[in-house]
Amino acid sequence: MSDQKAVLEMILTAEVLALAAALKAEKLAKSNVMGYDGISDAVRLIKNKRASILEELSRP
Predict the structure, then answer these.
(1) What are 4-59's pLDDT values in tens digits?
(2) What is the rounded CA–CA span in Å between residue 17 and residue 8?
(3) Using an 8 Å Cβ cutoff, are 24 and 38 in contact?
(4) 31: which DSSP letter?
(5) What was the pLDDT predicted at 60?
(6) How many CB atoms lie within 10 A of CB 20?
(7) Where are the domains of the chain?
(8) 34: which DSSP letter?
(9) Angle 57-17-48 (CA atoms, 0-180°, nearest 5)?
(10) Model-level pTM?
(11) H/E element holding 3?
């Protein structure tokens, strides 16, 4: 694996973990959910919103 690819994978991992932590905090604020880490929801949200976010970023 190239160094650049490794760095991009680390950045992606960090972003998913940050989003997962925010989702977990939001869910815990609403109810006491034990064992929820938010990672699968974070990955799903990123996959679902990727295209629309990139489209918005490409607009002037």
Answers:
(1) 988 999 999 999 999 999 999 998 888 877 888 999 999 999 999 999 988 998 89
(2) 14
(3) yes
(4) S
(5) 86
(6) 19
(7) 3-58
(8) T
(9) 45
(10) 0.75
(11) helix 3-30
Is the Cβ–Cβ distance between 13 and 1 less than 8 Å? Answer: no
| Distance, CA of 26 to CA of 38 (rounded, Å) | 10
Residue 15, amino acid: E
Q: Are the beta carbons of 8 and 25 closer than 8 angstroms?
A: no
Residues 6+ apart with CB under 8 A from 38: 19, 20, 21, 22, 23, 24, 27
Task: List Cβ neighbours of 43 (8 Å cut-off, separation of 6 or more).
Answer: 16
| Tokens linked to 15 | 């972003």
Q: State how far the alpha carbon of 40 is from the alpha carbons of 15, 56, 60, in Å.
A: 13, 24, 32
